[in-house]
Amino acid sequence: MDRTAFCAALRRRTSGVFGTSLSQSQVDGITGILDAFATHGDGRDKTLAYALATSYHETGARMVPVREGFAKDDASARRIVAKREYGKPAGKYGPYLLRSRTGAAHLAEELRLVLGRRGL
User: Fold this and answer.
1) Average pLDDT of the residues in 64-75
2) In the chain, which residue ranges form alpha helices assigned H by DSSP?
3) Region label for 4, one of left (φ > 0), alpha (ψ between -120 and 50) or beta (otherwise)
4) What is the percent of the chain with per-residue pLDDT over 70, rounded to a whole number?
5) pLDDT of residue 81
6) What is the reported pLDDT for 65?
7) Which of 36, 49, 63, 114 could form a disulfide with 29 if both were Cys (CB 3.0 to 4.6 A apart)?
8) How far apart are alpha carbons 85 and 16 in whole angstroms?
9) Which of 25, 34, 44, 32 is nearest to 6 (CA)?
10) What is the SS3 assignment for 78-98?
11) Could you give the C-alpha distances from 86 to 45, 76, 83, 95, 98, in angstroms and in order?
């Protein structure tokens, strides 16, 4: 994959993903995912699109690790989680931190379409 072309495609207004720009930290995050996929992935475009979409969805498009609720520190993140339904104890094993995959699946499809149109 031509990574320069890939990032350029993501910056195009018509991509519908990042607008018209990517920050250096977003580029670094995307590059990290691409590097990991190149060495540990299954080689399927669908899997890569899902990994990128999940990162996009779970990080609020930052593409780098974030704390829950985008908190500035761990104590704040714990307070945020405690207020949410999924942060409440669920049986003897504590809270289950589950998320909907709907947003990630939608973005994966968008990325697949963008990549297919660009021949990347």
Assistant:
1) 85
2) 3-11, 24-40, 45-58, 74-83, 102-118
3) alpha
4) 72
5) 81
6) 86
7) 63
8) 31
9) 34
10) HHHHHHCHHHCCCHHHCCCCC
11) 32, 16, 9, 6, 7
Distance in angstroms (rounded) separating the CA atoms of residues 65 and 27: 13
pTM score over 0.70: no
Cα separations (Å) of 102 from 36, 68, 107, 108? 24, 19, 9, 10
Encoded amino acid at 46, one letter: K
| Widest distance between CA atoms in the chain | 50
Distance CA 101, CA 105 (A): 6
Which residue type does 6 have? Answer: F
Distance CA 77, CA 5 (A): 37
The position carrying tokens 């996929």 is 37
